[in-house]
Design brief:
The complex is a heterodimer of chains A (472) and B (195). Chain A is of the alpha/beta class and 472 residues long. Helices cover 33% and strands 16% of the residues of chain A. With 195 residues, chain B is an alpha/beta fold. Classes of the chains: A alpha/beta (472), B alpha/beta (195). Bound molecules: iron/sulfur cluster.
């Protein structure tokens, strides 16, 4: 029977299938971090169970870690306890861990792919909703809750009922200066934050095929913001080229066997999806959010919407509440919205390409007076690579802060936070109330928009900046 | 988990609907690293009020919570179930439960019994007029009974079986450990390992 990519990966992992019960699915890779794992390990301990496959499990410290003075003890007692607990649990249960200070430490969704651990056709889980990132490789990757983390640790499997399938086909090509982030923000604005509920989204079409691996990860990362369980992109040469030579990628004869297997991982021509959406890439421009959920976004060239013009009552009142929280007046051009902080980082946009793109904008320019700019690499490897390319100097010369790896200001769980009422342009994935710190106001943007905004002090794209020659 | 076939205990009438998981256990309690000891967080905001039902002397030792419609809405936190269990509740009765909460309850060995709203009202009155009223929730017959009244509740066969056998998800899967090992013996060699 013709099947979709998601269905093929699912079928290849069924350990047990009985009518009327969930399928028992094998998990190829389980990523662990300090926030959602303590109770899972505690559950194992209470029941006297071991971790079944420590060799398919990898832990890293990311959500709570500071991005400055990382050689000092973590100041916040709760954060310190979570990190210390992870270290003790990994030691007790034999799970490999990349701790703060280790060259492989970083955000869990940056670390897996860069080690070559995330490969096409795998099932990947983590107690974190942005696990969807790994779907960029054609893996079926999704976030799970704490008791599921315990279940995977104990059994390396999960009982699951099949997800529905959705195709998001992006036709045409993105214009120069329009990024994967703009694309996914536009997709979410189109299908809504609940539009993907219960679905695995497969992104396809010409624009997707042309994206680099890192850009594909940005797209899949935010699938969850449309409510989807997972996002996937069929593997192709871009995928194989990215994987070749990575520390955990197959070598020699194994590599050939792997590429052979991976090449068949695509949706059959006559397969059908439960739902299909088509988007034209050619008309897209830089996209930013104005509200308090990732679906409340508009092109940068637009103005803050007027809730009175929204027909749907629920949406109208949501928009009213959002504007009040965001401190925005309807009709204000988005380009006139001034920010206090720019955050460049996170599992959405904290990879080397993102940093390169931002550095290209900032090179030879100065950050606007009074704007705080945090550049936070997604992993230690990304930091080292950026430093080898001299990007750190580009950032610091422009007046931005160059930090150590971690989730940082993506969420208010570590020292990097917005103060109440502060406004940011952020390359992260969630603009919920208080997400970046109590009372903080977040505009989600691409790395290019973040960098241009850092220069002007208000939401901008690189096209808004005067050319460098004219400046001197 | 201990198996549960029938449970009898004193009950508390929580006359509120839409009790969401933020009320059941506020977010500040989620930073804990243990799996037990969440009883202090249960309804933490409401318990600041000395007149809140759970603060009354007659509520001590109650094991059945009878709440208004749409219990357990909001965030999917499993801590809500843990907090109710740690506090001593074994059964929650309401006329409707949020889906995710219902699922989490089944995993955590907490019985959720959905009965008609008119029966909830009758049960509330019975508890309030006599706080020593014993309420029995019987999984075998799928009934909630008190003072001579007995009403049915819906519970799917699978969840009922699990509760009656005292099986958590991990126990259930470990029954098929041979299948897992068999699957592992055929995994392609090119798949990565973390060590
Ligand atoms: S960077 Fe943000 S979204 Fe990504 S894992 Fe960290 S906290 Fe979650």
């Amino acid at each position: 029977m013709a099947s979709t990519l998601a269905e093929k990966v699912w079928e290849a992992h069924v350990v047990r299938r009985v009518a009327g019960e969930p399928d028992l699915l094998y998990i190829d890779l389980h990523l662990v971090h300090e926030v959602t794992s303590p109770q899972a390990f505690d559950g194992l301990r209470l029941a006297g169970r071991p971790v079944r496959r420590p060799d398919l499990t990898l832990a890293t410290e990311d959500h709570n870690v500071p991005t400055q003075n990382i050689d000092l003890p973590i100041a916040d007692p709760v954060s310190r306890i979570q990190v210390d607990t992870l270290r003790a649990n990994c030691a007790e249960f034999g799970v490999p861990l990349h701790s703060l200070g280790d060259t492989e430490q970083g955000i869990v969704h940056v670390v897996g792919p860069q080690l070559g651990l995330t490969q096409p056709g795998m099932t990947v889980v983590c107690g974190d909703s942005h696990t969807s990132t790994h779907g960029a490789f054609g893996a079926l990757a999704f976030g799970i809750g704490t008791s599921e983390v315990e279940h995977v640790l104990a059994t390396q499997t999960l009982p699951l009922t099949p997800f529905r399938t959705m195709a998001v086909t992006v036709e045409g090509q993105l214009a120069p200066g329009v990024t994967a982030k703009d694309l996914i923000l536009a997709v979410i604005a189109r299908i809504g934050t609940g539009g993907g509920q219960g679905y695995v989204i497969e992104y396809r079409g010409e624009a997707i095929r042309s994206l680099s691996m890192e850009a594909r990860m940005t797209v899949c990362n935010m699938s969850i913001e449309a409510g989807a369980r997972a996002g996937m992109i069929a593997p192709d040469n871009t995928t194989f080229d990215y994987l070749a030579g990575r520390p955990r990628a197959p070598k020699g004869a194994d590599w050939d066997a792997a590429v052979d297997a991976w090449s068949s991982l695509r949706t059959d021509d006559d397969a059908t999806f439960d739902h299909e959406v088509v988007i034209d890439a050619t008309g897209l421009t830089p996209f930013v959010t104005w509200g308090t959920n990732p679906g409340q976004g508009l092109p940068l060239s637009a103005s803050v919407p007027d809730p009175a013009a929204i027909a749907d009552e629920q949406e109208r009142s949501a928009a009213e509440r959002a504007l009040e929280y965001m401190g925005l007046v309807p009709g204000t051009p988005l380009r006139e919205v001034a920010v206090d902080t720019v955050f460049l980082g996170s599992c959405t946009n904290g990879r080397i390409e993102d940093l390169r793109a931002a550095a290209d904008v900032l090179r030879g320019r100065r950050v606007s007076d009074g704007v705080r700019v945090l550049v936070v690499p997604g992993s230690v490897r990304v930091r080292l690579q950026a430093e080898a390319e001299g990007l750190d100097t580009v950032f610091t010369d422009s007046g931005a802060e160059w930090r150590n790896a971690g989730c940082s200001m993506c969420l208010g769980m570590n020292p990097d936070q917005l103060a109440p009422g502060e406004r940011s342009a952020s390359t992260s994935n969630r603009n919920f109330e208080g997400r970046q710190g109590k009372g903080g106001r977040t505009h989600l943007v691409s790395p290019l928009v973040a960098a241009a905004t850092a220069v002007t002090g208000h939401l901008s794209s690189p096209a808004d900046l005067p050319a460098l020659e004219e400046m001197s | 988990m201990e198996p549960i076939t029938s449970h009898t205990g004193r009950a508390v009438a929580l006359r509120r609907s839409n009790v969401d998981t933020d009320q059941i256990i506020p977010a500040v309690y989620l930073k804990r690293v243990t799996r037990s000891g969440f009883e202090d967080g249960l309804f933490a905001a409401w318990r600041k009020d000395p007149d809140f039902v759970l603060n009354r002397p007659e509520a001590r030792g109650a094991t059945v919570l009878v709440a208004g419609q749409d219990f357990g809405t909001g965030s999917s936190r499993e801590h809500a179930v843990w907090a109710l269990r740690d506090f001593g509740f074994r059964v929650i009765v309401s006329s409707r439960f949020a889906d995710i909460f219902r699922g989490n309850a089944g995993k955590g060995g907490l019985v959720v019994a959905a009965i008609a709203q008119e029966h909830v009202e009758a049960l509330w009155s019975a508890i309030e007029s006599d706080p020593t009223t014993k309420v029995t929730v019987d999984l075998e017959s799928r009934t909630v009974s008190w003072s001579g009244t007995s009403v049915p509740f819906a519970l799917d066969d699978y969840t009922r079986w699990r509760l009656m056998e005292g099986l958590d998800d991990v126990d259930l899967t470990l029954r098929h450990e041979d299948l897992v090992s068999e699957f592992e013996s055929h995994r392609p060699l090119h798949l990565p390992r973390t060590v």
